[in-house]
Amino acid sequence: MGCILSAALQAPFLAAWSQQGSMFNTWKPMWVVLLEDGIEFYKRKSDNSPKGMIPLKGSTINSPCQDFGKRMFVFKLTAAKQQDHFFQASYLEERDAWVRDIKKAIQCIDGGQRFARKSTRKSIRLPETINLSALYLSMKDPEKGIKELKLEKDKKVFNHCFTGTAVIDWLVSSNSIRNRKEGLMLASSLLNEGYLQPAGDTSKAAAEGLSDTPFLDLSDAYYYFPDSGFFCEGNSSDDDVVLKEEFRGMIVKQGCLLKQGHRRKNWKVRKFVLREDPAYLHYYDPAGGEDPLGAIHLRGCVVTAVEDMPDSKKYDVENNLFEIITASEVHYYLQAASSAERTEWIKAIQSVARTGK
To answer: Rounded mean pLDDT of 32-41?
Structure first.
């Protein structure tokens, strides 16, 4: 299955739901693979055989799908036999990427062509001498890089961010580009590759394709580095100071994990963000929402790998479990997609727990 996955569009824990109960009639996290002529479902990434398959020939796709009022980032795939299949992505860009590639695959089938997935991001040609990773490190240099500021707009305070104009100014002054037009192209590439993140409605709208360019050379368009301590404060100066303090730490690691509920003991996909100084692990609904569902204070915690859970059904878990026990003796059980990913999370949490306050 490895070679198939490497050649296809794939995503861990894409939520899926099918009508008429042919595969599953409730929302469940599935490993979904887009092939040349169909979509395959796997309960786990490591499974050798798919749980089901939807042929794309004669299928149609609808996005955004409003059939589920409170669920965001849903799209609907209607098969040739008029059976509806619904998918929920973790965020807008992921949903749009899936929709674009599925549409392309269907068009290739209709035209008798071979589907070859290309990048779903806008194609931006850069000089071969440009190394985005090296450029990103230079931009983050504490002395010579872009200065992170506290900026205010629309009664909100954006911490650890900078303006689009500041980015272009820095690119010009560092001789990375010849003019501001070329700077827009380079900054757009940094944005598309995730080295920059939009903050605020103006820059987010442009990144989503509602402007002539993904990146804006404007003083009221805000951006931030993905591993910085960026956080946004609302319009009230009386907000809980302790809560704000949780978000001041630099982001060390983030990604999706399965988390076991404390009451029902069921497993749900959650997006986790690990911060240090102060040491917190926040978890969010991957379907959207800026506010976390919960926070785990990691100072003085113990984190270990777990091989078995007696109160879980056998098919619910793999050998990628780990447990966090906080200083107040609250137990959290999490499940990674692979053994290597579990090890990465354990090491990162242990490091933060030792050094963060």
So the answer is: 85
